Automatic annotation (TrEMBL):
InterPro entries named among the record's database cross-references: HATPase_C_sf
Protein name: Anti-sigma regulatory factor
Lineage: superkingdom: Bacteria
Length: 140
């Protein structure tokens, strides 16, 4: 497991923070991604229900990718922290000829219900699901 944090502006506390987390594409490691998601959302002062919604959405996105991940693949999770939003992009190498669930699927409906925005894309043999959650409450 590799963890790194990159900051483009040393003075920024929250702006322009990027956290990259790579774990084996195995259900046993999803707890690590859920915990990181909750920690970063808490840092942005998301409400408890918003944090739980985002944790569930990340878990669902990872489950979608695990279903089509190539043998020995890794899940790469990129968290982009801004002043009032958390963007989570989860990627995995996929088996040739596989597709992500359709936007009409139940899994996709879960993602769009729990986040502000959800986008899926494939680039060759890499699939990415990007989730954006904006804090609903006032800024602390």
């Amino acid at each position: 497991m590799r963890v790194s944090q990159l900051t483009t502006d040393d003075q920024a506390i929250v702006e322009d923070d990027i956290v990259l987390l790579t774990v084996p594409a195995d259900v046993g490691y999803l707890g690590v991604l859920r915990t990181a998601t909750a920690g970063l959302a808490a840092r942005l002062h998301f409400a408890l229900d918003e944090i739980e919604d985002l944790r569930i959405a990340v878990d669902e996105a990872c489950a979608m990718l695990l279903a089509i991940a190539a043998a020995g693949a890794e899940l790469e999770c990129r968290f982009a922290v801004s002043e009032d939003a958390l963007t989570v992009a989860v990627s995995a190498s996929t088996q040739p000829g596989t597709n992500l669930p359709a936007h009409a699927s139940f899994a996709w409906k879960v993602l769009t219900a729990l986040t502000t925005d959800a986008v899926a894309e494939t680039d060759g043999t890499v699939a990415t699901i990007r989730l954006v959650s904006r804090r609903q409450g006032p800024r602390p």
